[in-house]
Write a structure and sequence with these properties.
Elements lengths: L4 E5 L3 H14 L4 E5 L3 H10 L5 E5 L1 E2 L2 E2 H8 L4 E6 L3 H9 L4 E3 L4 H14 L4 H8 L1 H12 L6 E5 L4 E5 L3 E7 L2 E6 L4 E4 L3 H7 L5 E3 L4 E4 L3 E6 L5 E5 L8 E2 L1 H11 L2
Parallel strand pairs: 1-2, 1-3, 3-6, 6-7
Antiparallel strand pairs: 4-5, 8-9, 10-11, 10-14, 11-12, 13-14, 15-16, 16-17
Helix pairs in contact: 2-3
């Protein structure tokens, strides 16, 4: 029986070690390789080695988005994506029948992804990629890159309607199921959209969702301080009265986003 080969591409070492450990416990007969979490190193490895049967691929790598890796390496593997929070990506992968794992990865969810792979294991790798919609996913991503983002909002005031420009907004937050846009002059405006919809309509180069309650513009972030249990606290301007916490996983993505 041919030994199944699996590769992990993950730029966070603790996450890579955890996934490697879980895979070896669930499928001790597999041959598991962990690659550095960079596009450059991973593309080089795929050019020099036979492609694995299954690839666990982090969405955001150290030097860019994993879709760049896919375009360059064209992996002939079943791909299981891992992500800290990317809701848009989760929806896209579901539509294209590609599995995904939310970090931190739970063993039961990993087992489910493995079983899905094993159901398809009798197919040729080319057929598998076609079935799972890799090409459609790449096309979907390309369309997303060319997307026209929202530029303004129509606000319903007490006595009149008025507009605010997206460029004038410092951040968005949700409170008691109501969404607010805080402009750079410190005023809060009620927006008739949930944060999940806003996230799809805003330019990801300018706005970043730090948690379930906040989407921040880069310009609004004043400083980031360490907090308990590996979390961090983000300070913004105009000031927010409460505490804006961010998880360790999201913090890693936020630092890469701010440095891009």
């Amino acid at each position: 029986m041919t030994k199944i080969k699996a590769v992990i591409i993950e730029d966070e070492l603790p996450a890579a070690r955890l996934l490697d450990k879980q895979l070896r416990e669930l499928r001790p007969e597999w041959e598991v390789t962990v690659l550095p979490g960079t596009i450059e190193d991973s593309v080089k490895w795929f050019a020099e080695h036979p492609h694995p049967d299954i690839l666990f691929l982090d969405i955001q790598l150290t030097d860019g988005n994993s879709f760049i890796f896919i375009e360059q390496a064209r992996p002939q593997s079943m791909i299981v994506f891992t992500t800290a929070y990317d809701e848009y990506a989760v929806r896209a992968f579901t539509v294209n029948s590609i599995d995904y794992l939310l970090k931190p990865v739970h063993k039961e969810r990993l087992e489910s992804a493995i079983q899905k792979f094993e159901r398809f294991s009798g197919m040729g790798k080319g057929e598998l990629n076609k079935l799972l919609g890799i090409e459609q996913l790449l096309h979907s991503f390309a369309e997303r890159q060319e997307k026209q983002y929202r530029t303004r909002f129509l606000i319903s005031g007490a006595k009149r309607f008025y507009t605010i420009q997206v460029g004038d907004i410092a951040y968005f937050y949700s409170l008691d199921k109501v969404t607010f846009a805080v402009t750079k002059d410190g005023k809060a405006h009620v927006i008739d959209l949930p944060l999940s919809k806003l996230e799809e309509q805003l330019d990801g180069r300018i706005f970043f969702r730090v948690n379930r309650q906040f989407i921040l513009s880069a310009d609004s972030i004043r400083n980031i301080q360490h907090y308990f249990n590996g979390k961090a606290v983000v300070s913004v301007w105009p000031a927010y009265e409460g505490t804006i916490q961010i998880s360790r996983e999201r913090m890693t993505l936020l630092k890469m986003w701010l440095n891009s």
